[in-house]
Design goal:
alpha+beta, single chain
C-alpha cells in the first residue's frame, strides 16, 4: 500500500515497530499465547458444559408434576396436670398414588406457552424373575409416541427398538447380561400389588450408567397401570420446554395453578449448577490473569519504546507534531500489537483445539465430548486483545505526549 495513503501516525507506528523487531515479535508472541490459551480454555470448558447439559437433559424431563406426599397428622392430646405432653410422630410410608385429575393437568400443560411435549408416566418398583434368578427393578410405564420426544431413549438402543406394545419390555444392557437374555426372549415381571405379566424383550438400551442399565425397565403405560394397581392413573406428568432454563419459572406457574408438587430439572440438579458456576468462575479468572499479563507486557514494551524514542519524539514535537498525534501514535502501536498478536493467537488456539479433538477420543474412536469451533469466540478474542493493547498503551502514550521537546532532544 502506498504510504502516502496511510495516516501519519500509522506510518510512524509501523516504523517504530520495525525498528524494534525483537521486542515487537516477543510481545506479539506473548499476546498470541495468551489469546490461544483463552480460546482453547473457553472452547474446552464450553464443550464440556454443553456435553454435561446434553447428558442431563437427554435423559431427564425438564418439568415433572407429582402427586403430593402422604403426611402424618398429629392427634391433639390433653394436658396432664397442666403439663404439655410431647410425642414422636413417625412419617407415614409413601404409597403409590396417581396424580389427581391428571387429564386436566395434561391439557393445561399442553396449552401452556413454551412447553413442546408432555408425557404421562406410571412408575413403581417390581421384580424380574427368570428361572431361579430375580432382580429388583424400577418399572416405568410410558406412551412411546410422546416419551421418545421427551427422553433420548432411541439413541441409546443397542438392539431391537424402543417402540412398545402391551406385551413388550425394554431393558438395560447390564440387566440383560445378568439374566442371560437378549431381544426376543421373555421375562416374567411381578409387582408388590400382585400384578404379573410375561413380557417379550423388544429392545435393549445402554445409558452408559450401570445403575440405570441394571434397574430401569420400560413397558407400555397401560401395562404398568395394570401391574402397579393404578387403573387409569399416572404417577407423574412430565414435560420439556423450548427454553430449558425457563423450567423453574414454568414449574412454579404450574404448581400455583394446580396445587400439585412440581419439580424442575434446575431445582433437582442444584449441585450440578453450583459446579458449573464454579467452573465458569475459574474460566473467567484464567481469562482475567492472561489478559492482565498481556497488558503488562505490552505496556512495558511501549514504556521502553518511549525512553528509546524520546529524542525522536522531541524532534517530532519541535517540528509541529501535536500532543494528540503523539498520543495516537502510541495508542496505534499498542492496538496493532494486540491485533496482530490476537490473530496469531486465534490461529494457535484453532491448532490446539484441532490437536485436542484428534487426541481426546473414546476407545471406539468417537470424541470424548463435542467441541465446536465457534467463530465468534475468535472474534471476541481478537477484539478483546486489541482493546487490551490500546488500554495498555494509554500510560506510555500519555507519557510520550507530555514530553517537553527541548528536554527530550537535549536528553
Amino acid at each position: 500500500m502506498n504510504s502516502s495513503l496511510l495516516p501519519f501516525e500509522l506510518i510512524l507506528a509501523l516504523r517504530f515497530m520495525r525498528e524494534a523487531k525483537m521486542q515487537t515479535l516477543l510481545i506479539m508472541l506473548g499476546v498470541a499465547l495468551g489469546v490461544s490459551v483463552i480460546v482453547f480454555i473457553s472452547a474446552l470448558i464450553g464443550g464440556l458444559q454443553n456435553n454435561l447439559f446434553d447428558r442431563t437433559l437427554d435423559f431427564q424431563a425438564q418439568v415433572v408434576v407429582l402427586p403430593p406426599k402422604n403426611s402424618s397428622r398429629s392427634l391433639r392430646q390433653p394436658d396432664v396436670d397442666g403439663v404439655m405432653l410431647a410425642k414422636l410422630v413417625q412419617p407415614r410410608a409413601q404409597r403409590l398414588q396417581s396424580v389427581d385429575q391428571w387429564q386436566k393437568v395434561q391439557k393445561y400443560m399442553m396449552d401452556l406457552d413454551g412447553i413442546n411435549v408432555v408425557a404421562l408416566l406410571a412408575s413403581g418398583t417390581g421384580l424380574i424373575v427368570r428361572g431361579e434368578a430375580s432382580k429388583a427393578i424400577a418399572l416405568v410405564g410410558v406412551e412411546t409416541d410422546s416419551y421418545l420426544k421427551l427422553i433420548a431413549l432411541e439413541s441409546k438402543i443397542i438392539s431391537g427398538t424402543a417402540t412398545l406394545t402391551s406385551t413388550d419390555i425394554v431393558v438395560g444392557m447390564d440387566l440383560a447380561k445378568d439374566l442371560g437374555v437378549w431381544t426376543g426372549d421373555k421375562l416374567n415381571l411381578q409387582t408388590a400389588s400382585g400384578g404379573t405379566a410375561l413380557l417379550n424383550i423388544q429392545g435393549i438400551f445402554d445409558f452408559g450408567n450401570s445403575g440405570a442399565n441394571l434397574r430401569t425397565v420400560y413397558v407400555a403405560l397401560r401395562t404398568a397401570q395394570s401391574l402397579l394397581g393404578l387403573p387409569g392413573g399416572v404417577t407423574s406428568v412430565e414435560a420439556n420446554l423450548d427454553e430449558p432454563f425457563d423450567a423453574e419459572n414454568v414449574a412454579q406457574i404450574i404448581q400455583a395453578q394446580t396445587g400439585l408438587k412440581v419439580d424442575s430439572w434446575i431445582s433437582t440438579n442444584a449441585e450440578f449448577f453450583s459446579a458449573l458456576e464454579a467452573q465458569s468462575m475459574s474460566n473467567n479468572v484464567i481469562r482475567f490473569f492472561v489478559a492482565l499479563t498481556a497488558a503488562l507486557g505490552i505496556a512495558s514494551v511501549l514504556v521502553v519504546s518511549v525512553v528509546q524514542k524520546s529524542k525522536a519524539i522531541g524532534i517530532l514535537r519541535a517540528t509541529g507534531t501535536s500532543q494528540a498525534q503523539i498520543l495516537r501514535l502510541f495508542l496505534l502501536q499498542g492496538a496493532l500489537t494486540g491485533l496482530i498478536g490476537s490473530l496469531l493467537g486465534a490461529l494457535f488456539g484453532w491448532l490446539f483445539l484441532a490437536i485436542w479433538r484428534s487426541l481426546a477420543v473414546n476407545d471406539d474412536g468417537t470424541q470424548l465430548f463435542q467441541i465446536d469451533f465457534e467463530p465468534m469466540l475468535f472474534v471476541y478474542a481478537a477484539v478483546g486483545a486489541t482493546l487490551v493493547g490500546i488500554l495498555a498503551a494509554l500510560f506510555p502514550a500519555l507519557k510520550a505526549a507530555r514530553l517537553d521537546p527541548a528536554v527530550a532532544i537535549s536528553g
